[in-house]
Amino acid sequence: MSSYEPQPYPTTTLLAYKAAAITGGVTGIGRAIVKELIHQGATVSVNHLDDASSKESFDSLKSEIAATLPDPTLIDTILINVPGDISQPETSTEFIAKTIEKFGKLDIFVSNAGICDFHEFLSLPPELYQKHRAVNMDGAYYSTQAAANAMKSFGKGGSIIAISSISALVGGAGQTHYTPTKAGVLSLMQSAACALGQYGIRCNAILPGVIRTRLNEEDLKDEEKRKYMEGRMALGRLGDPTDIAGPVVFLASDFSRYMTGAQLLVDGGAFVNFQ
After folding, report:
1. What's 137's domain CATH number?
2. Helix, strand, coil shares of the chain as percentages rounded to 5?
């Protein structure tokens, strides 16, 4: 197993005075993104499922972040949650509206919510395919549209970042219901970049490789498979959620001000390593 331990980024304020919203922000990659957005000075609104487990995850995230603040009581001024099913159009409308109600604006939007339940193609139930399409693709579409309308109304542009996947570029035998949704998310960012550039709104996609999260926790318990996957990486290790947070901050900041419609592959060198 890799001995890699994620290291904290230096304390900076790349996103000072910016307001951000993120879907699926209480576990895995989304959780790491929320922490780094706040670490870089942003205020953040988080969407998650309206269930006990997700609310508990948000509460623990809130406590973790509060403990890092000079004044823990400030947490309620920089972090809020808006529970709801992101596959439903009305959830996105409410999410963005409550974000603006709290922070007065929206500068950054991250479409991160997604699911991936591995299943053999020939026996894949229609409802499993429909669930993945609804959460991964429909959710990204509705929330991006709602965020873009808000950014346009303020007239100051903004940055929209969608978490796609390396699976948008390669196939997977047990992912025939998942990979098309991630290719769709990438395509959505490309077309949205064309549609929204006139308003100063940038749209980019991040394509993570194999990142250790709850989505693949069971799959990676197979030591032989895990070692094989690590061997595929040019860097020799699997990704950590914090490895995605940095690129999100980059795309959210003015350092990427001339980037739109781009796809940023963050995979440890898996795609280019055919050994």
Report:
1. 3.40.50.720
2. 45, 15, 40
